[in-house]
Amino acid sequence: MGQFLGRLVTTSAVITEAFHLVRRYPCGPERVLEFLEESETTIQECGQSHDLRSAVALMGQYKDTPMDFADATLVLLADQIGQYDICTLDRRGFSTFRTAKGKRFNLVIGES
Q1: For the segment 5-16, what is each residue's pLDDT rounded down to a tens digit?
Q2: Sequence ranges of the domains in the chain
Q3: Strands (E), the chain
Q4: ω into 66 cis (within 30 of 0)
């Protein structure tokens, strides 16, 4: 993890998507698991009815961007934990998305 001193938090939907994306690579799922364990990433659940309803509403609001379920759960999580720094490859989406509190995301991918 190098010199990173923060904490990583994500959702179970993002983890599901990550495992899906790396499934064809040799050791892909194992590498994702290693990263999650070594970084001590906290994984929040997002399967309660109110979470699903809020995520679906966000996906509808941003259907032109587009926003998938994993993205929606991260937007919801940001307001829940009060953290708006995000490490993502989806610069277009997270430059556009706003939380229910109207907060913008600070994209930190690739920064030193």
Answers
A1: 789 999 999 999
A2: 9-107
A3: 9-11, 42-44, 85-86, 106-107
A4: yes
